[in-house]
UniProtKB/TrEMBL annotation:
Homodimer. This is Glutamate-1-semialdehyde 2,1-aminomutase. It comes from Ureibacillus galli. The keyword Isomerase applies. The modification N6-(pyridoxal phosphate)lysine is found at K268. Its cofactor is pyridoxal 5'-phosphate. The gene is hemL. It catalyses: (S)-4-amino-5-oxopentanoate = 5-aminolevulinate. Belongs to the class-III pyridoxal-phosphate-dependent aminotransferase family. HemL subfamily. It is found in: Cytoplasm. Its EC number is 5.4.3.8. GO terms for molecular function: glutamate-1-semialdehyde 2,1-aminomutase activity. Its main location: cytoplasm. Pathway: Porphyrin-containing compound metabolism; protoporphyrin-IX biosynthesis; 5-aminolevulinate from L-glutamyl-tRNA(Glu): step 2/2. It comes from the Bacteria.
Length: 429
């Protein structure tokens, strides 16, 4: 496969854009380096690079593209916005319609607010939780990503009862020490942290089904326990559903799990591919937000008509009967094919899958926390990633990411992908 033009463009990008990319995860740093493939256009489950190579895509732009590229219903909505005004700086009816749709699908949302990114949505839920409780500390789980604002770019201290340290240059130690990081799926460590800091904790920040060290479901009873202890200690629960909202069913992960968080942050899918974030939750908590209350959050672009109309159109597509069942069916087929091929070639892997999302870890351990995901073989994954790319299958360039199916993938695409996997595994030995 020829990537000459991609390489030329990336060389030029390196002169003008930091690291040649506008988000670090797009670089191939985690898969052994090289020029990232530069994409030209997409349609359905495929996209084509600037050299004319076609790929079956499982990146889905890190999650949002659940209806594939250039979906006609979404394209029509975006065109309408382009023709009738993409931004007014005033309220529109679209915002109300979309807020109602989200509330209908996710019962814990009494009131919502739109933002422009997942980062902004999560950042605001943390501020609102602090404003509402009058407390400052946050507990998060190791390996979960919540955006790039200071308070969540924090690494674990040396144990759950230790305060965090900055995970990025530029994050003040004073900010990091307000954050406690504990391992996912570990009740004892969570309890230790709550015993020590519980009375100072404003909120527990939770990816209810983890997407950021691969797809990892909570063990039975774990999140129920977290919710119960949080309530006992007067801390709020925040579900970061930026990946999970509308990924697994028409609604949020909280409803699949039977949990009711105080606040929820969303993004990605709900924008139909356009920039978006949203947060919402219990009425009395949300009413601490300006102009009703003292917690400030705003945005020139927030609730813009293009993102609202694209989001509404995306949810309309997802609401069609059978959509999620089909992604589940194809996901199961893909998982089975990957496992069979691994066995055939003597490659040791663990596959975590929930419906149309899965992660392949090069490890013989089960993966239910970050440490186990970290222990999977990144060098082997890097080689696998490049072999898949050479066969026209695009994955996320990191061992920690998920493969996402879309409504546009077909059985034929899955078969082709399994063939590519079989080739890649044969070469990895
Ligand atoms: N929360 C989670 C769970 C995410 O996966 C992400 C993005 N990968 C974010 C928040 C941040 O969203 P954004 O990139 O839109 O700011």
């Amino acid at each position: 496969m020829n990537h000459t033009k991609s390489e030329q463009i990336h060389e030029e990008a390196l002169q003008h854009i930091v690291g040649g990319v506008n988000s670090p995860s797009r670089s191939y740093k985690a898969v052994g380096g090289g020029s990232p493939v530069v994409m030209a256009r997409g349609k359905g489950a495929y996209f084509w690079d600037v050299d004319g190579n076609r790929y079956i895509d499982y990146l889905a732009a890190y999650g949002p593209i659940i209806t594939g590229f250039g979906h006609p219903h979404i394209a029509k909505a975006i065109t309408l916005a382009a023709e009738t005004g993409v931004l007014f700086g005033t309220p529109t009816e679209h915002e109300v319609k979309f807020a109602k749709m989200l509330k209908e699908a996710i019962p814990s949302l009494d009131k919502v607010r739109f933002t422009n990114s997942g980062t902004e949505a999560v950042m605001t839920t943390v501020r609102v939780a602090r404003a509402y409780t009058g407390r400052t500390k946050i507990i998060k789980f190791a390996g979960c990503y919540h955006g790039h604002f200071d308070q969540v770019l924090v690494a674990a201290g040396s144990g759950p009862a230790t305060l965090g340290s900055p995970d990025s240059a530029g994050v003040p130690v004073a900010v990091a020490t307000e954050v406690i990081t504990v391992p996912f799926n570990n009740k004892e460590q969570f309890q230790l942290a709550m015993d020590k800091w519980g009375d100072e904790v404003a909120a527990i920040l939770i990816e209810p089904i983890v997407g950021n060290f691969g797809i990892v479901e909570p063990n039975k009873g774990f999140l129920e326990y977290v919710h119960t202890v949080a309530k006992e200690k007067g801390a709020l629960t925040i579900h970061d559903e930026v990946i999970t909202a509308f990924r697994f069913h028409y609604g949020a992960a909280q409803d699949l799990l039977g949990l009711t968080p105080d606040l929820t942050a969303m993004g990605k899918i709900i924008g139909g591919g356009l920039p978006i974030g949203a947060y919402g939750g219990r009425k009395e908590i949300m009413e601490t937000v300006a102009p009703l209350g003292p917690a400030y959050q705003a945005g020139t672009m927030a609730g813009n008509p293009a993102s609202m109309l694209a989001g509404i159109a995306c949810l309309e597509v997802l609401k069609q009967p059978g959509v999620y069942e089909e992604m589940d069916r194809l996901g199961a087929m893909l998982e089975k094919g990957i496992l069979q091929s691994a066995e055939k070639h003597g490659i040791t892997i663990t596959v975590n899958r929930l419906k149309g999302a899965l992660t392949v870890y090069f490890t013989n351990e089960k993966v239910e926390n970050y440490e186990q995901a970290e222990n999977s073989d990144g060098e082997l994954f890097g080689r696998f990633f490049k072999l898949m790319l050479s066969k026209g299958v695009n994955l996320a360039p990191s061992k920690y990411e998920a493969w996402f199916l879309t409504t546009e993938h077909t059985e034929q695409d899955i078969m082709e992908t399994i063939e590519a996997v079989d080739y890649a595994f044969s070469q990895l030995k």
